[in-house]
Amino acid sequence: MLAIVQFYHFAYMAIGVAMLGFGASGTLLTLVGPLGADRADRWFARSTVLTALAFIAAPVLAERLPIDATQLLWHGGSWLRLVVIELVLAAPLLAGAAVVLLGIRLAVRQSGLVYGVSFFGSGLGAVAALTVLWIVQPHRAIGLPAVIAAFGALAAVWNGGGKLRVASLACTVVAIGMLVSPVWRLDITPYKALPQIEAYPGANRVAERFGPTGWVVAVEAPAFRHAPGLSLGFGGTVPAERALFVDGELVGATPISQPTADDLAMLDWLPSAAPYAAARHERVLVLGAGSGTEVRNAAAHGARAITAVELVPDLVALNASAPHAETDSTAVHWVVADARSFVARARHRYDLVVLGPAGGPGATAAGVHALGEDFLHTVEAYVQYLRILDGGGVLAVTGWLTVPPRGSLRSVLTAAEALRREAPSRVRDGLVVLRSWGTVTVLAKPAGFTPAEVQRLEHWATERQFEIDWRPGLEQPPTARFHALAEPTVFAAARAATGGVEATNRFTDEYPFDVGPATDARPYPHHFLRPESVPRLLVAARGEWWPFAEWGHVTLLATLGQGVVVALLLLLAPLAARVPRSAAAPVLPVVGYFAAIGLAYLATEIATIQVATLLLGHPVFAVVAVLTLVLTCSGIGSLWSDRMGEHRVRYALAALVVMVTMASLGFLPTVHALQPLPLGLRVVATIALVGPVAIMMGIPFPAGVRLVAREDQVGLAWAWAANGFASVVAAPLAALVALEWGSSSLLAGAALIYAIAAAIMYSRSAAAPLSSAAGSPPT
Amino acid sequence: MRAMTHPERRRPGLGRSVPPLSVLVAAIVILLVPTPTVAQERGQRGADRTQAARQAMVELIAARGVVDSATLRAMERVPRHEFVPGSNRSRAYGDHPLPIGYGQTISQPYIVAYMTEVIGARPGMKVLEVGTGSGYQAAVLADIGARVFTVELVGDLATTAAERLERLGYANVTVRHADGHVGWEEEAPFDAVIVTAAAGYIPPALTAQLRPGGRMVIPVGSVYGIQNLVLVQKDQDGRLRTANLLPVRFVPMLEGLR
C-alpha cells in the first residue's frame, strides 16, 4: 500500500519495519526478565489479542499521518512523521513476534515445531497476500492480516474464556468490517502522474482494475497527449489519447477514437521509429508493450506480424480493446508474459526487437527505480534478444536522456557488449545511436548496417531533427546540428564501446557515474551512483547536489543508518537497564551467533529470490513462489532440528556453509542453462535448487534457541532480539551488497557469515557447550 | 468630531465612576490589539527578517552561477513568501521546492532564477508561461518588466494565482485557465516561452508561437528534482535548435566526483 500511495521506495521499509517489530519483542521480553510458566502462558494469550488489535489499529493510525515524500530532504518534521509511521507499523509485528517467542518459551523442547509452524504460516501468508489481490482492492486487502490475527487470537484464548475471549471476538468482528469497509483510502500522493492528470479539466477515469501485478487505471482527459520524445520538426496535431497508469505512474496511452492517417503519420516523428527508417521490418517483437505506442508504431510502419509481450494482463486487455486504424491489417498477437522469460523460450525469429521508452521522463530522470531489479536491460538479456533476430534483424532500445547522460550511455555500452559476445566482428558496424532533444535510441544489428541503411537513417534523422551520435565509420565527434550536449559523451561512450573491452573499461572508470553494463548477477540498470560519491552527497549543502541523487540509493542508505541506530539502541537497552543475566553467560557469543544467522538468512533469502525469479520468469508470482518455498522449507528444517543432537546441528551448519558457497558460484550459470525449459521443469528445478538450502537455513535458529533457552529465559529473549535486529540491518545491507557487487557476492557474504556462526558454535562447544555458557541461573 | 468628544454626553444610568462604553471598548481594543507603534515595530522586524532571508537566498543563487543583474534584482524584490501556502511560509526562502497543492510545487528559487536568466528576460519582452502554479515565476518576469501571459490547467490554481498577482500589484501579468499545450495563439508570437510543467514532448504549438530569435526553456524531469533543462532556440529562419542545460554547477561536481 505504501508503495502505491507513496513511492515504491517505501516498500523497502516494509522488511525493516517487520524485523524491527521482531527484534523489539525480544528487547521487551529481555527487559521484563524471567517469566514463570503461568505468567508466560497469560502473556501468550494477551499477546495474541494484542496482535489482532495492533493489526486493526496500525493502518488506521498510519493513514492519519500523511507524509510528503518530496519534502523529506528539506523538512525535519517529515522525517519525524516517517519514524512515527514506522513505529506504528512495527507494532503488530512486535506483538506477533512476542506470541512466537512466548510460544517457544512455553515449549522450549519443541522450539523447532513452534518456529517451523511460524515459518509455514509466513509461507501461507505470502500466498494469501498474492491471492487476496485478485479478489479485493489493495486498500481492502489491508484488512486480511487483521482477520487472520483475530482468528488466531480467538483460537488461542477460546478455552480460557473471560475478557480475552470477548476482546478477540470484538477484534474478529472489527477486522472483518475492515475487509468490507476499508479504513485506508487509496489516496495516493499528489505527485504521481495519476492525480495530476485527473486534475485536468474534464478528466474522467474510464477503467480501473486491480490485480497482483498492479493497480491499472485508464483516464481520458482532453488535455492529455502522449508522444514520447516527439521531433521538434513535427508540425501536425498530437491526438488526444487515453492515459494508462500502473500503481499511479504513467506507463503509456491508447487511442480514444479510431486513429486517422495524420495520427499514424505522427508516429514516424517519434525517435523510436528509427529502425523503420533503415529497413522494412515485417516481424516485430515489442517487449514491455503495455505502453501501446510501439505496437502502433510497428503497425503504422507496415509490420505484418507483431508479437506484443506485456507482463500486466490488464494493460494487455486495455490495449487489445483500443480502437485500431481502419486500414490496419497487421496481425497483433498479445502475450501476457515476462519478456525475458518469453525471449528465452522463443522459437520464432524476428526482424526487429523493440524496447521503447516507458511512461514519462520523470521516474527515469530521478533514479526512482535505482533499486529495482530489471532483467530486461542486462548484457545477458541483450544477447538473448540478438539471438532471436533473423539474419538482418535489429534490436532497438529507446530511453530517456538524462543530464548528465547515464542510462543512455549504459544502453550503448550494453548493446555493444552484447554485440561483442554474439557477433564480435560486427561491433563497429553493427551499432547506430540517435539522439533527440530528450531521448536516445540505440540500434544494434549483428549482421552490421549496410552503407545504404546508414544513409537512409541519416536522411530520416536530418528531416526529423535528430542527431546521429554514432554510426559505422564515424571517427570524430559529429557537430551537433539540432541538439547540443555540453560534451559529446554519447559519442565517446559509443566509440569506447566499439573499441574493445579495455576502451570500454577505461571509459566507465573515468565517467563520474556508474554506467557500465548491468548483468544478471547485478541487474540494476537504473542505478548509477558510485558509492564513493555518497558521503559527498550527504554532507554537501542542501540543494547543491540533490538533483543528482539516486533516490533509491539514498533511501537505502537512510534505512540502513536508521536500522543500525535502532538495532544498537534496542539491543543495548537491557544492558543499560541492568537486567539480571547469567554471570557465567557471556552475552557476546549468544548475540554474535544469533545476529550472524539473522544476517546470513536474509542475505541468502534475498539473493536466492532474485536469481530464482529469473528462472521462473515472472517478477511477481515468482517472488511469492520462491518466498513460499524458502519459508516452507525453512519450516521443515526447523521441525527437523527438534530431532537433532548438538553435534548434528554443527554438521548442519557446516553443510549450510558449503551449500551457500556452492550457490554463490553456480546458481546463476545453472539458471541460465535451465531458462529455456518448460515451466513445469523449471518449477521442479527451482524446488531442487532452492529447497535443500532453505531446509538447512531453518535449522540454526531453533537449534540455537533450544540450547540457549534450556535454562535461561533471558538469554532466549536476547537471542531473539539479536536475530531480529540483525535482520533489521540485513534487509537494507543485503540490498546494498546486491546493488554494488551482485547476487553472487551476496551469497558469498552469507556463506562467510554462516561460517562465523558455525565457528561461534564450535568454539563455545569446545570451551563449554553454548547451552551451559548461556544457561547458568540468572543472578 | 466635536460631538464625539463632548463632555456632557454620557449614557443615562451610568455613574461617573463607570467609564463610558466607548472608553471600555477602546481599552479592550488597546489591550487586545497591538498599538500602531508595536505593530509597526513587529511588522518592521518581520519585514527585516524576510528581506534578510530573501537577500541570503539571492546571494546563494548568485554564488551558484546566476549573474544576470535584472534577474537577481527581481528575485530580491519579489516576496516569495506571498506565493507559498501558510504552513510552509517560514521555509519560503530555502533553496528548494515547496508544495502548493494539486501535486504542484513552487519551483526551487535557483531554478526560477536560472530559467529567467536563460530566456534573457528584459523589460517589454512578451513571455508565455505554461503552468502558472503559484504565480511566482510570472511575478519575477513581471518585476523585470516583461509582459507575461500565463496559462494554468488547474482552475483553482489559476484563480488563486490571478488574485495573488493582482493583490501584489503585478499588472503586467495575464492569467488564463486553459490547456497550455495549445499555447496562446491570440497573443502570439512570443519572445520567450517558459514551460514550468515537465512534459514528455514539446508541444508543436508552443514552438510555432515562438518568435524567430526567441527562446523557450522546458524542465524535463520529475517532482523529485529537475534533472534536465532543455533550451529551444528559434533562429531567424525559423529553425529550431535545442541544448540540454544543467540546472546546477555540473563541472565542479564532476571534478568532485572524480
Description:
The complex is a heterodimer of chains A (779) and B (258). In chain A, helix 2 (10-32) crosses helix 4 and helix 23 (587-616) packs antiparallel against helix 26. Mean pLDDT of chain A is 83; it is low at 359-369, 541-547 and 769-779. Among the domains of chain A are: 193-243, no CATH class; 254-532, Rossmann fold (3-Layer(aba) Sandwich), CATH 3.40.50; 580-779, Growth Hormone, Chain: A. Chain A has an eight-stranded mixed sheet with strand order 7-6-5-8-9-11-10-12, with helices on both faces. A four-stranded antiparallel sheet of chain A has the order 1-2-3-4. The relative contact order of chain A is 0.11. Chain A is globular. Chain A is α/β, with parallel strands linked by helices and 779 residues long. Chain A is built from 30 helices and 13 strands. Chain B has 258 residues and is of the alpha/beta class. Chain B has one domain (66-257): Rossmann fold. Helix content of chain B is 36%, strand content 22%. Chain B has helices at 21-32, 36-63, 69-77, 109-118, 136-144, 155-167, 204-208, 250-257, and strands at residues 98-101, 104-106, 126-130, 147-152, 173-177, 190-195, 210-222, 225-234, 240-245. In chain B, the strands form two sheets. Chain B has a seven-stranded mixed sheet. A two-stranded antiparallel sheet of chain B has the order 1-2. In chain B, a hairpin with a 5-residue loop joins strand 8 and strand 9 (240-245). Residues 1-36 and 247-258 of chain B have low confidence and may be disordered. Classes of the chains: A alpha/beta (779), B alpha/beta (258). The interface between A and B is large, with 67 and 58 residues. Strand 13 of chain A pairs parallel with strand 9 of chain B.
